[in-house]
Amino acid sequence: MKPKREHATNNGQTYMVTSTTWNRSGHFRNERWARLFIDTLYHYRGAAYQLHEFVVMPDHIHILMTPKASLERAVQFIKGGFSFRAKKELNSNLEVWQKGFQDHRIRDARDYVEHVTYIHQNPVRAGYCQNAQEFPYSSAHAGFELDPVPQGLKPESLGELDGAAEAAPFQSPSLQHRSITNENPTRLNILPKKTA
Description:
Distance between the termini: 38 Å
Shape: globular
Structural class: alpha+beta
Strand order of the largest sheet: 2-3-1-4
Radius of gyration: 17 Å
Strand content: 5-15%
Mean pLDDT: 80
Oligomer: single chain
């Protein structure tokens, strides 16, 4: 028997959310689609959720977020908002998303760091880049402003992971705040094929 899904209300919890495109179609291989998705993600940031990390892969997305209300509502803003804008701004009548989404509640600082690493390394593992910072549709790439790590999930509370004293500020460049720029525009639709 499948356990009943916990209704994620405004409880200050942080989640990793994954959603796939309809039939795993590569909608986000197109630069306009990927950039519009990121624009939609930032449109609802602050009002519906805090945005900590993300990656937009050709056929799926991963987002690390802390919803302001319910998790379901935050994901509805993102997926529904993007679908609306894709029809309007990209003149698309394509089905965009598979129904539903997968989520994982972040339990502690170690879990947070593991999921940040997973998000950043997703395009590297898929063979789209050598270094996570090279992938233009990931929060690992320079130029994206992110919300701070939630209190209680800050990696500095894991002295054994980074060797830093508990009171020392977190220094990892992959988790520092970044502001949005248009530097180094790279086209997702010309990414190399996955390497074997």
